[in-house]
Structure formats: structure tokens, C-alpha cells
Amino acid sequence: MKTPNRKALRHFTRILGILLVFGGAFGLANTFFVFPGLSCYAFPYSVSICPMGILQNFLSTGTALLLPLAFVMGLGLVLGRGWCGWFCPFGTFQDILGVKTRPGKGKSLWWIKFVVLALTLFLAWLASDTLFCKVCPAGTLEGTLPYLFNGTATLNPASILHLVTLGFVVVMVFFYSRFWCRYLCPVGAIFGIFNRVTPLQVRFHSDKCLHCNRCSRYCPQGLDVVKEVNGTDCIKCGECIVCDALSLEYRPVSRKEGIKRRLASSKKRNITK
Amino acid sequence: MKSARKSSLWALLLVLLPVISLAASMIEVDIQRVAADGLWEYHVHFFNASPSRYADRLVLTLEGLSSPVAPGKILQGEEHTVVATSTQKLDVLSGTIRYLTCDDQTCTMVNEELQIRPTVPSRWPSWLLPTLFFSGLSLLCLLLLWKIHWIYPVLVFAIGTLAFFGFAANQDSTMRSIGSTLCISCVGLETLPEAFALEEDYAQEVCDMQPHTVEVFHTEWCKSCPAVVHFLEQLVARCPNIQLVDIDAEKDHQLAVEKGVVTGGKTVVPTVLVDNSQRIVGASGFPDRLLKALKEVEP
């Protein structure tokens, strides 16, 4: 795929993501489909369900997690974290804010989002309440802010806490691009589990690589592309495709190649300096 | 291959989770309606889904049926069918179920209200659809296995199974209703209130007013509604001049739309309407806002 086409396609799919959030404004009714990304179903026009919200709700009422899990696993299998890079409106929001932000390094704290995921699910079960939603910045953007404007909500400790978390994420996006996706997003953590399995892959051709590391400068997740492309944190956005050594493709792993082969490993690189 | 093993461990964990949570759910009831010589037979089918706990002293009382249905004791994983008759053709059966859920040492009492739609027995045997579905799914998985990594068939089969049982348990309608309800406290628009205490001065002031109607809209999913409803019930018990109308915004959806409780496709709960003019949304500081609204409508 040629670079300009890919960029235009990515703009298009991200606009689709935003349109899906506003589905109710086009007369669509509420469905039981799970939104592939972080989008609050408290939003007045939302038509699909937040994956974190529904998992917590089911756990808090002690319902067996059957259909929600099927949806989340299915979405993960289809695109993995490709949803984060190509669809999620909260990711787009951060991309717009952080358009001037240099990606920067800082991979070492990637595991925090798995802690957030585990804590979210455990606390929902323990406290029988959707505690994560009370601090979720996407909830502020799509729940608290619209209802503050239309007068349903008032300023109180809970809504101020919400505004503070959104403010924190907005400020941090100016220092680390896609700060929320990189370190904190629990939906990203779930999709990250499926990242090596999903057919959407950024392919690395080691024989064509000149080791200039130009690709890493473009990665919004701040990855060392040659080592970590397709890993848990790769959002498959394709920003790193600046030369012939990298290409985006949709192909399942064959029986012969292991899933590990999909990770461009530094050991297999033939370093000639 | 090490990382493939790791991925499969994750997949296994994801499959195990629902199985564990399934074990927590207990008695399942479904009813088949059969016509028989001017009477209607209701075949009540009980199933104990728990692998570890048995149910004892099970009594199901349904409105419209003359006598309660009591199968007594149902062991782990056992099924039980009881037939009840009625002269009426009932489309929705509502009632209560009471039973003890016991393991070797302890028993807990369960007392739940339930609503069941009776199904009409189908001409096709009940095992046909699951068999077709799962044999098709297995065939698809085998085809997948022929060419690509084994993790794909495993995942496809797991997703298919979860989705099948999810739809069978009507989880799609549960998910839709969760998505279309805005419980104000759930997205943190206000702090979740504890129960409100009814003070003597407050009650006296309200009791001295003219008669008023108070409508309260709530749903099953709403976490801050019980505090509001309980407070209003207390108030009504004390003051005969206040008439309380209790409305489930999901069941009476049309009414909720008419009264403006639904905005932009979302049901906003808890919402309280005083004399159809004053509107109180949310639960924080509810008693003070109610008193203010009552004073507004006072002639």
C-alpha cells in the first residue's frame, strides 16, 4: 500500500469512529454491540457499549461474562490494537491535541495499563460498582461535559474528579503523545493481548533495513520500532512506514511460522556498522 | 514457540473466566406453554447450573396459577420439571422464587422476583440448533487449522461458544438496556449518596403543605436511585398529602419519553417530577432540592 493512500484511509476510518459515537444523532437506536475502543455509553447519542463499562457492570452484578467477552475477544482477533490506531475516538482526540508533541521515549512503564485493567475488573467485582468509570477521562469527555452543558449534572466532588483526570491526560499528552493509550488504557491492554495473533501486522523486512532508526522518530507510542513493532504497545497505525523495510499487511500467521517471528527481534538483525 | 504458549495461556484464562462465573449462577427456570382440553399446561423446567451447591425447599409462586410450584430439592447439575395448569392463557408469568442454596456446611436463603415469558414448544427438537451451530463452527475451525496457526481455531471456537451461550442467556437485551440507561452516579456526575434520613422538622413542613403528586423514575441498574426512592417512601408514609408514583423507566419507556426523562436516546435516572412541573435530576442533596421544588409549586 502506498503511503498517501494509507494516511487518507486512516483519516477516513478515524472519522468513522467519531461518527459511530454520534450514531444516535442520525436516528440509530441503542444496540448491544461493543464499541471497539474507549467510548462512554453515557454520551447522549451513543449507540454502542463501552467494553470496560460492560465488563464492570456484568462483574458487579455477578452475571456470567459470556457475550461481552465474546465481543471483546472477537474485536481483538480482528484488528488487535489496530482499533486504537485506526478507530478509537479517544485516541484521535489525543492525536489532535498532541499533533505538535514529539513522541519521546518512555517504554518502561508500559505494564501499568495491565495493572489498571486487573484493578478495574477486581474492584468492580469487590465493590459491586463501576469504579473505573468514575475516573475515566473518556467518560469526562462524553459523559460529564455534555451533561454539565445541558444542565443535568452539577459541579460536585465526583464531576470535579472527572474533570481533573481529563485535565491530567490532556496536559500529559503535550509531553508524551498518546499518553493515555501508552500507559493507562485498559481497553488497549485487552486488545494488546491479541496483538501478535491478529492478522493486521506491520511487517519488518530485515534484509532491507539500513538501521537508520528514522522509523522510531515517527512512532506515536514511542516504541523502538525495529525491536518492538507488533508488540503489546504497537497500535499498527503505520506511521513508522517511512522506508521499504516496513509494510502493513493483513495476513494470518501460517502454521509454520511461530507467533514470535512476527516480532521484529533485535537478535536476528544483522548489525553492520 | 515460547510466546505462542504464552498467548495460548492468555486465551485459556479468558475462556476459564466465564466458566468460573457461570458456576456462581444458580437456579434457571424456563416455562413451556401447552394447550390441553380447554386448559393451559405450564411445564416449569428447573435447572441447577451450579456444580458445587444444591438447592433445597424450592418454591415458585406464580400469579395466575392456582397453587405454587414446589419441586423441593434439586442437586448439583440436576434438572426437574413440574406441570401446573391454568384456565387462562398467560403471556407473561410473574411471581417469586424462594429457595435455600447449600453446600456441605452452610445454607443461604434466596428470595427473588422474576418474570418469565412462556415458550411454545417448537416443531424442531431443541438439540438441533446447537448441534448445527457447533458442528458448523468445528468444521470452520478444522478448515482454518489446515492452513494457519492453531491459535486461530482455538480462539474462533472460544468466541463462538461464548457468543452462543451469551445469546442463549439473553445477554444481548441486558447489554442493550445497560447501554441505554444513564445512571447519573455511574459516570461520576455526582457522589453516590448514602441513605437520606428523614428529619422531624422536615416531615412536619412537608405535611403542612397542599396535596402534591411526586413521580419518581428509576431503573434496575441505577445505583443512586434506591436512596431517593427509600426517602420518598418514608416521606409518604409520614405525610398523607403527598402522593407517590413509582415508575420503572425501562418498563414504562413510553411514559418516560413523554415526561422528558429520555434525552437524546438516554434514560436519565433518578428523575423526580413534582406536580409535573418541577424536575429534580440526580440524587445529591435530594431532600433539600425536593423541599425547594415543593415550595415552588405551593400556591
Judged by helices, strands and strand pairing, the structural class of chain B is alpha+beta
Q: State the helical fraction of chain A.
A: 40-55%
Low-confidence stretches of chain A: 266-273
Strand order of the largest sheet of chain B: 4-3-6-7
* Count, helices of chain A: 11
Distance between the termini of chain B: 79 Å
- Mass-distribution shape of chain B: globular
Uncertain ranges of chain B: none
The largest pleated sheet of chain B is described as: 4 strands, antiparallel
Radius of gyration of chain A in whole Å, from Cα?
Answer: 19 Å
Radius of gyration of chain B: 25 Å
Structural class based on helices, strands and sheet pairing of chain A: mainly alpha
How much strand of chain B?
A: 25-35%
Beta strand count of chain B? 14
Strand content of chain A: under 5%
Helix-strand topology string of chain B: HEEEEEEEHHHEHEHEHEEEEH
Give a verbal description of the structure:
- The complex is a heterodimer of chains A (273) and B (299).
- With 273 residues, chain A is mainly alpha-helical.
- Helices cover 44% and strands 4% of the residues of chain A.
- Chain A contains eleven helices and two strands, in the order ααααααααααβαβ.
- Mean pLDDT of chain A is 85; it is low at 266-273.
- The radius of gyration of chain B is 25 Å and the shape is globular.
- A four-stranded antiparallel β-sheet of chain B has the order 4-3-6-7, with no helix packed on it. Chain B has a four-stranded mixed β-sheet with strand order 10-9-13-14, with helices on one face. A three-stranded antiparallel β-sheet of chain B has the order 1-2-5, with no helix packed on it.
- In chain B, α1 (2-24) runs parallel beside α3 and α2 packs antiparallel against α3.
- Chain B is built from eight helices and 14 strands.
- At the A-B interface, α2, α3, α7 and α8 of A face α1, α3 and α4 of B.
